[in-house]
Each structure stands twice: as C-alpha cells, then as structure tokens.
C-alpha cells in the first residue's frame, strides 16, 4: 500500500509539473530585427504548438520540466531547432534567416497595386479570411470591406451569392486567380457557386476599387478582385475543418501538404464538401470541390502546377419573393418541381513559371485552361409548341398548341490562353517597370433540350430546340512604371491596349437566328502620383477603362442596333496613413460613365428586354476606413462610404396592356439614381481579447436605401438595413496537435428582416384612371435569414 501511495504521489507530481511549466519568447527576422507574425512554434515530442502574434511573440503552456525541443519555422525562412531547459529564465529570441528562394508574390504582383501605386485598394490576408470561413462563399466573407454589399439567393450565404462594390455588380468587377482571368467571357460575371470553398485555398486577395491597375480579362468597370492561392509551406501539415449550423448547413474540409521536400519540392491538396437546405424553402445546395498544387522552388525560379474544380447542384430560388409575401411568408419559393435545379461543374488548370534573371529582372508566365459544363432544369406549364420550333399536335379533331414540358438549358465551354509579364527594377530602386499582357480564347456552346413533354408529338428525348456557338478572342498588352522623382515622390504610368474579336452563330433560345461578329480595340491609359512622408502616403490618379457589351446585348438586340461599348473615366485621390496604433485611409472618387449600358424596359422585336446606352452617368463618393488598437485586448475598426450615383437623363419604357394592341409608353427622368447604388454603406467591428487564446467580435453592417430600377421611385426600393453578427474564436494547444480552433458565428443576432437584392417591373392594365388604365408595379425580393449560426472546429497537425 505504501508503494502504491508513493507511486500515485509521483504520478500526481509529474502531472502537476507537466501542467505548470510555460515558455514565452519572440521570433524575428535575423537581418532586420522585425517581428515575424504567424511564425510556427512546435514541440514535436510533447505535441504542443502555437503561432506568433502581431508582435512576433508566443507562449507555450503546460510543458513538462526538463529539456524541450523547439522547432520554429516561417515561410521563406530557414527553420530553427533549439533545445530549451525548463523552467527557463531570460529573454528567448529566435532569429530566423531568410532562404534564398524566389518569392511567390511575383505571381500576382504584375496586376496588383503596391504601397506606391496611386489607386484605392484593400488587402485581405489568409488569417482574416480563415476567421470568417465556415462554409459561406467569397461575397459573404468580404462583406465587411469598404463599399461592399453582398447577398445570397437562398438567404444563408451558401449557393448562389453575389456582391456589389460601389454599386457595381459582378459583371463589372474583374476577378483573377494568380493573375489568370476568371470572369465569364460572355456575361462578364463570376459565379462563386462554381468555386465552393475556394476561400480555403486562398492565401490573400487584393480588392481594387475603381479602374485600378491594368489586369487581364474583362475590363475593370467598378472594382477588381485579385486572388493568390496558397503559397509554399516549408513544414509538413494536415488540417481538418468541420462546421455545421442553421438550415442543416455542413462543411467538411481536409487539407494536407508535404512541406518542402529536398529543399525544392512541395505538394498541397484540399478536398471539400458543403451542403445546406437554405433559408428559402427547398433552396438546397450540394457543393463539392478539390484543389491540388505542386511546385518546384529554386533559388532563381518557381514552377507550379495548380488544378482545382468545383461541382454544384442548387435548387433554384432565382424567382425571388413577391412583395405580397414579404411580411408573413419570407421563405416562400415559386418553384415546386422536385428537380428544378442548376447543375454545373468547372475545372481549372494552371501552369505558372516565375523566374529571376540577373539582379534586375523577373519574369512570369502562366498557361491556363478551364472546362465548364452544365445545365439548369425547368418544368414549364402549358408552354407553346411554337416556342420550341415545334408544330402543333393534332389528336383526332383537336389541334393542341401547348403542353407541359421539362427542359434543360446547357452551357458547354472551353476557356484557355496565357498571361505573362516582365519586371525590371533598377539597382537604386528608382525605376520599377512592368511589361505584360495575355491572349485568351473562349469557345462556348449554348443549347437546350426537351427531356419530357406531356404531349410529345413528333419529338425525341433530348431534342435540341436551340443551338448556338460563340467564340471570343481577348488580347491585351500593357506597360506600367513607377519612377521615384525624389525621395518620397513617385510618378506612375500605366498604358494598356486591349483587342476583342467576338463571333456567334446559330439559333437562340427564342428561336431567332443570331449570327454576328464584332471587333473592338480599346486604349486604357492611367496616370498618377504618390507622395510618402512621415508614415503618410498621399496619392491621386486618373484612369480610363473601356468595355464591350455582353453576350445578351448582342443576341437580344437586333444586329443592326448593337449597343455601343461603354467608357469609364475614373479619378481617385486619397491618403493612406499610420500613426502608432492607428491606421486609416481616406479617399475621394469620381467615376464618369459614357454610354453606360442599363435596362430601360425597352423590348426587342420578339419581346425580350434589352439594355440601352445612356449618354452620361456618374458615381462620386468619399470612402473612409480605420483601425485603432486601444490596447492588447481591444481593437476598433470600421469603414464608411458616402456617395452620389446619378444618371443625367434616363428614359423608361413601360409595357401597356390596356389596349388590344400591345405598346410601350415612355417616361423620361433627369438626375435620377442608379439602381442598386446606396448612398451610404458602412461597417464597424469591435474585437475584445480577454486572454490571448480567446477573441470576441461584434461585426456591424449598414446599407442605405437602394432603388430596384433607375427611376428613383420609392415604391420600387429596398429599405435600408443594419445587421450585427457576433463571433467567438478560441485557439488551444492540446497535446499532439499543432493547433485547435473553435469558431462560433451568430449571424444577424438582432433578427433583422432585410433584403439586399431584388428586381421590379411595371405595366399598364385597363383601369379606372383618367386615361382608362392603371399602372401595376410588381416588386420581388431576396430575403436574408434572421438569426442563424455556424459552429466550426479546425484541427491542425
């Protein structure tokens, strides 16, 4: 018994000793002495680890007494291994030496703004994205950045989502991944639902507002999103992310990497699955994706092969919610057919080379290929045979001209090409010159199939009732340079020439022949300056962007009346500043549009609504954002954008069904507001860290009133809304894990009923009015969920 008691006492003493020891230190760059934020500190045998904070400091707790082996690593630096005896007294500082590897940042640097560039931008790094990434899509994760308004068709941030920046929608926002264009070549849009959980493979993103710098792909006509995927990890790792939440939302993600093999090679991979029932009735999402990257890292070159894919099935909620159901049935869905779904898969392949030539030159070349294919299925009640190019069906003495039909509308496309750049930096750093460009081709098939008909007539399953093809070639070259005239004063110039050839042929979905060809050549100059002094950077710039019409502008308009291309003249001027614990940005912008294309209500010869050019319109505003660290526990941040968004003269066309012969009535407005352009957008974030491992955040968003069309009619508007989200993040260091993170996000904690998106249309019917007709306006909304939650657990090995 004495031996047993003595043994238990020894065990308890051992456990007590294990739990009581702690170790603190700091990790810095050996050459500069600057703190390294996010460096990994790991005790392999004990199985505990952490990362350094904003001051480069770390603390490991519950360590055993005696000798402990520490491994300290940071991307781009040599790993340091050191044995420390505990308890330890004194200052423990790890000085890491930079590796002689070429930085991967150059992959995206040619299309990005730097601290010297006189344009308006926001950088969001991996840590910020990870805090919010519990399965919702990119637009929702970026909603607290300046001038951003995001929305979700299904109401919960999963499935079809979108965002607007300064009131510009996704067809006017250029998106690139590793410098490679992502916008659909025909619609100019980006469909984030085709890239589920892409945020888990993003290292950082730069959001440029306004025209910004020259980039590849669709013209930047309001903003650009420049993504860089995961960069090299020097140490092997594995990570499992799981989350669940309201509306039966689940996310499962597995990531792993080899670390640097033989000091030269690395492979990283991710597999993800996201499912959700959606807030709107039946608006489910079933999303899967994968990402694989393999790289060679030499002293003077980097070669990477990247492949990623996304596959989605979503039940359609595109119709929106009628105004009559807004108060008592917000989850109502117009669609009831059990397979009213959208189905699409998109595969991306990228080959990227970055090389250093001598001491002054760097080169970058990327080849890419994207294959997309999919359809959406619809049940159509009592559709005319003529709408499908079919003759009426005669049964006995009865001639039947319509029937119930199930159809699929397909898109099958290939997008491929190359982008590249060469960078020269003078020995004294005075001249920074970039020459770049790219050439890309889109080849897309559009066709529709009848897969079922109640009365089939002379048809076969999968008969194509329309079929057309489009080929679009997009080429650009650019030269941009920053020249330091004197210390602190930099001049910037950026010249781009972009050429487009677009041809299309075949039968459109409305049974019209749509054969045509258009070519454009655009010159897009940009000039500006920046001045740096005392931690402040003042800047001003003038930039031009030209943009071709979209596919529907060509196919819906008579070929003889193709809309003119749009032009944007953009002025940006502002200040970027940092003083102690306060950092802030302030800028003014003026975006002057010539021939902007907008919906006016006018129809073509077969009744399809078309977009028309308006001669003059503009956006002007002031954007302010700031962050202030009160102390180690409290941080305040926020942004606000105040703007005016006007069309100088706008003519609306309203359908008139009050007479036997259909016609349209025109109404002209002057100095009217641009649709979906709130005059006020702001957010405020409060973070409290009572202890190092625990973070509590209150995130608030305000969006002012938005008009659903360009008439500035209060009866066709989205109400202003203010929402608040609450996030709790806890990081622990359990044995045998490099890290454990628990995140709880409670969205819309005050249960606000709001709608950030919608649409409207009006028409005249016979009525009691003085003219014998009444105006009917129908508004449709996309309601967002009330209070809901997402809970996530991340394990790092």
TrEMBL record:
Gene3D superfamilies per the UniProt record, alphabetical: Carboxypeptidase-like, regulatory domain, TonB-dependent receptor, beta-barrel domain, TonB-dependent receptor, plug domain
Membrane topology type: Multi-pass membrane protein
Location in or out of the cell: Cell outer membrane
Keywords: Cell outer membrane, Ion transport, Iron, Iron transport, Membrane, Receptor, Signal, TonB box, Transmembrane, Transmembrane beta strand, Transport
Domain spans labelled TonB-dependent receptor-like beta-barrel: 330-749
Annotated signal sequence range: 1-19
Stretches assigned to the TonB-dependent receptor plug domain: 116-222
SUPFAM superfamilies, alphabetized: Carboxypeptidase regulatory domain-like, Porins
Family, similarity comment: Belongs to the TonB-dependent receptor family.
Name of the protein this chain belongs to: TonB-dependent receptor
Source organism of the structure: Algoriphagus oliviformis
Lineage: Bacteria, Pseudomonadati, Bacteroidota, Cytophagia, Cytophagales
